[in-house]
Write a structure and sequence with these properties.
With 528 residues, the protein is α/β, with parallel strands linked by helices. 40% of the residues lie in helices and 15% in strands. It has a twelve-stranded mixed beta sheet with strand order 8-1-10-19-18-17-16-15-14-11-12-13, sandwiched between helices. The protein is elongated and about 80 Å long.
Length: 528
């Protein structure tokens, strides 16, 4: 996927391993031996010094057989020189080290750091470490670290140790065992370090922010190692952040009315699933759509008691040609459902496809053709699949989608010519000819029934207010996660959050975002 302007800031730019290796190779060609490794050690040691002092306790460093191990050795000798008690466990044959890593090993052995064996760690029933630094494997790891291998046993022991004694773990570049591109532990039966924080060298990496990477990497920190950002290639991805939404939704004018903010029609709510459509419609209402209809596939209720503002109709009676249509929540897979979907794909100027609408498209070549035709007529389409729905659309299984979420999102947007929100930990938003975006907000509280319907409704409201599909998808995903974050932090915790609770919290986040970027509405005298 070809990234496009505007330029992405270094803090939010995302790269894959191929780009990182190219940047590193160019830098190494023009630097003295070991210079980049020394810069990595300096950055890591400085990061440790910002949070720990020598008085806090000893530091355990895990040094692997490659250049990531060299980074760890550099870190160890620098910390030892500053008075820290440093224990180093060296894994792998030092004869296989690169010239730069060999130099770092020599310096570490000449320092005050103490080299200890794996047995010395495991046999200590309560090691008094203030910090563990993981430098076993970096982005070059391509094979699984199995649970029965020496390094696998060490990783499992460190994970248990850190949890039992609340010892923080800092991973250098990438948590050992994690694929820096996919965010998955390498191989189904592999193991990986579960860090509290990860110091990503050179640039930020895709896999630290999606799938298992969200759990393994912890807080992600950046160290550019002194390389000029102007020499980096265009970033293929971006991390979502509040500032990227500035100005996307203009401040509301006094001289406006409900027609100024668009119309949303939510189509779904078959028998036994009416709540899904109500949730999506309520979210659209709370996110500022001027009028919201709920088109029920079966008999429509007279009104919704909780939100009487919603206009309840039979879906077959609605005109889709002047509204943003959100179709799928509780839609079912009947012939009527497929017929309504076909009509929506043909008529709706903007459409959000969720849940059963995605499953119907996956099963129907004519529906896929109607969806593809929309891109030729400049009609906006957003698809919001979870991994299983994405798998059906791509003819894969969910495990294959999760194995490389980034690639799956790329494949979906290219195949269907739509904006994609591939939901999950680190939801990925993809649009053709735009950098992929990984959403940074959200938490496990969103693993609850109905939250996907809410997200679809938010997308619909933003599209109805004339926002471009890519911007609407990115902003909707961010608001959705931001609301969950605020609820978890301030109110209910991560267990038992319901989708209906999420809706007013999304409204709060949206208004907070608007308040930060809006000019004052009233005259303010100029200060003398």
């Amino acid at each position: 996927m070809n990234p496009a302007a505007p330029t992405i800031s270094f803090t939010h730019a995302l790269y894959r391993k191929a780009e990182i290796r190219a940047i590193e190779a160019t830098a190494l060609a023009g630097l003295p031996l070991g210079e980049l490794m020394r810069a990595a050690g300096k950055a890591a040691s400085e990061q440790v010094q910002t949070k720990f002092t020598p008085r806090d306790g000893a530091i355990l460093i895990l040094a692997g057989p490659g250049d990531n191990g060299g980074d760890a050795l550099e870190t160890g000798q620098l910390l030892a020189a500053r008075g820290y008690t440093v224990d180093i466990v060296q894994c792998g044959d030092s004869l296989l080290y690169s010239a730069a890593a060999s130099l770092s090993l020599q310096q570490a052995r000449a320092s005050q750091a103490i080299f200890i064996s794996l047995a010395q760690i495991i046999e200590n029933p309560a090691p008094a470490y203030a910090l563990v630094i993981d430098g076993l494997f970096g982005i070059g790891l391509s094979r699984a670290i199995t649970a029965d291998s020496i390094c696998g046993q060490l990783i499992q022991y460190i994970n248990r140790l850190a949890e039992k004694f609340a010892i923080p773990v800092l991973a250098l570049d990438v948590p050992s065992g994690l694929d820096a591109d996919t965010g998955q532990v390498i191989a189904p039966h592999g193991v990986a370090i579960e860090a509290d924080s990860t110091l990503s060298f050179i640039a930020n990496k895709v896999g630290l922010h999606t799938a298992a990477g969200r759990d393994c990497a912890g807080q992600v920190l950046l160290a550019d190692l002194g390389l000029a950002h102007s020499d980096f290639p265009a970033a293929p991805g971006i991390l979502s952040h509040a500032a990227m939404f500035a100005g996307l939704l203009p401040a509301r004018r006094f001289d406006s009315h409900k027609g100024s903010y668009g119309e949303v029609m939510v189509i779904g709510g078959a028998h036994g699933m009416m709540g899904a459509a109500i949730l999506a419609a309520s979210a659209a209402l709370y996110c500022g759509a001027g009028r919201v209809y709920v088109g029920f596939i079966d008999a429509a209720p007279a009104y919704d008691a909780q939100h009487p503002e919603l206009m309840c109709r039979l879906a077959s009676e609605l005109d889709f040609s002047k509204a943003c249509v959100v179709i799928g929540p509780g839609l079912g897979n009947s012939e009527l459902a497929a017929s309504l979907l076909a009509r929506a794909l043909q008529q709706a100027p903007n459409i959000v496809l969720d849940a059963d609408a995605l499953n119907l498209i996956a099963l129907s070549a004519p529906l896929r053709a109607l969806l593809l035709a929309r891109s030729q007529s400049q009609q906006s389409s957003i698809m919001t699949p979870h991994p299983l729905e994405a798998a059906r659309l791509l003819g894969l299984n969910a495990a294959q989608v999760q194995a490389d979420r980034w690639q799956a999102a790329c494949d979906l947007t290219m195949q269907f010519q739509a904006t994609i929100i591939l939901k999950g930990a680190g939801s990925i938003i993809a649009t053709a000819q735009q950098p992929l975006c990984i959403n940074t907000s959200g938490n496990p509280a969103l693993a609850s029934g109905g939250t996907g319907d809410v997200l679809a409704g938010v997308c619909g409201a933003l599209l109805a207010q004339q926002m471009a599909a890519n911007d609407a998808a990115r902003m909707a995903a961010w608001l959705h996660g931001c609301a969950a974050d605020q609820l978890v932090e301030n109110a209910c915790g991560a267990i038992g959050l319901t989708a209906s609770e999420l809706i007013p919290a999304i409204r709060t986040c949206l208004n907070q975002l608007q308040k930060k970027q809006s000019k004052p509405q009233h005259f303010q005298p100029r200060a003398k």
